[in-house]
Design a protein that fits this description.
alpha+beta, Beta-Lactamase, Heat Shock Protein 90, 3 domains, five-stranded antiparallel sheet, 15 helices, 12 strands, 47% helix
Length: 361
């Protein structure tokens, strides 16, 4: 039997020299029919001995993992008998039996970890680069917004009706672009390593009320009612990073107010109980929590799938919500920078709430 033809369907490749992995061919009962040189090295025996053996003499539960590898069509972990040695094994079934390929699982893991670390460093440097260039990116658009607004207000002289229409379009589109770039840069900031939390005592209730007041223009003219509710103990101070806490509130409030024109928005401050802390996989400690619940923001399961992932949403049918995903990704990064968690609860045709739990200090 020509095993080179079985493996490669050609006689033009020297299998024993060309393959970087250990390759073994067995019949359907597991009897080894052919091996390459590397197989003898990793199994620490001779090729002759391998070809008089069964694969079950070397690999634990060999028939089971071979079947799994064939069915799943992806590598499985193979453990050597009586040795703490593991290899990634792929299996391909052919008429005569199985072609087995073994590759060092530890080496693969190291390579993957190195690549992941390299990607993390590259992404961090990219984000640091964007953050440091933020003024250069914003300044030209700020000029367009400012001058177009001045012209629309008549400071540049009288314009025709058509000119005024065009300048207002320029002003609106440049303002939208300015907001989009601001959120994109905010995401880069939260993904960079430039911001280190600074914990101090702050008045959470006063901070929430100030953020609500700051956003009056967003819901002015809308049929939106905002109320703030706090447990009795929130009349005292909490220990957190004030700037990050306010940014989280601000972004969540913007996300909701830009999506609704009516309904009730309730901001609740609470102390999470032990059950919530355990269910969310948090360590024991002192936590503070808040939620923003809107009766008018109705989300589908499809909306929730990419809620915090702007990179994933670009490939989905929800691409129109990419700005919301960018803002929420920033929120998630900020929450995680404080060691907390955020999640969304949505009841169809009832309400949607964003819930945040943060450790104190």
């Amino acid at each position: 039997m020509d095993f080179k033809k079985i493996l490669f369907k050609t006689n033009s490749i020297d299998v024993e020299k060309a393959l970087p992995d250990a390759v073994i061919f067995t019949n359907k009962e597991g009897k080894i029919q052919w091996v390459n040189d590397i197989s003898a090295e990793i199994f620490e025996t001779s090729k002759m001995h391998l070809m008089t053996s069964n694969i079950s003499d070397f690999i634990e539960n060999s028939q089971s993992i071979i079947s799994n590898a064939v069915i799943m069509n992806k590598p499985v972990i193979a453990k050597f008998i009586d040795k703490e040695i593991y290899y990634d094994m792929t299996a391909r079934q052919i008429d005569e039996g199985y072609v087995l390929d073994f590759r060092d699982a530890i080496a693969n893991e190291i390579n993957n970890n190195v690549q992941e670390q390299d990607n993390t460093i590259i992404n961090r440097e990219k984000n640091n680069f964007l953050v440091k260039l933020s003024n250069d990116l914003k300044a030209p658009i700020q000029s367009i917004v400012g001058f177009s607004q001045a012209m629309a207000d008549g400071l540049g002289g009288t314009m025709s009706e058509q000119q005024e229409k065009y300048i207002r379009i320029i002003n609106k589109n440049s303002s939208d672009l300015m907001y989009f770039i601001g959120k994109l840069l905010e995401l880069s900031q939260t993904e960079s390593d430039l911001k280190i939390p600074e914990f101090k005592q702050v008045d959470a209730l006063a901070m929430v009320n100030s953020v609500v007041k700051f956003n009056e223009q967003l819901y002015k003219g809308k049929d939106v009612k905002i109320s703030v509710r706090a447990e009795e103990e929130y009349k005292k101070m909490i220990h957190t990073d004030q700037d990050i806490y306010k940014n989280i509130l601000q972004d969540l409030l913007e996300v909701i107010l830009k999506s609704v024109d009516m309904g009730e928005l309730v901001i609740s401050l609470f102390t999470p109980n032990d059950e919530i802390i355990i269910n969310k996989g948090l360590k024991e400690g002192i936590y503070t929590g808040f939620s923003l619940s809107s009766s008018a923001l109705l989300l589908s399961e499809n909306d929730l799938e990419c809620m915090f992932d702007p990179y994933k949403i670009l490939d989905s049918t929800n691409r129109k919500n990419v700005l919301r995903a960018i803002a929420l990704a920033s929120v998630k990064n900020l929450v995680q920078s404080l060691g907390g968690i955020i999640w969304v609860e949505s009841q169809i045709l009832k309400s949607t709430s964003f819930n945040v739990i943060l450790p104190e200090g």
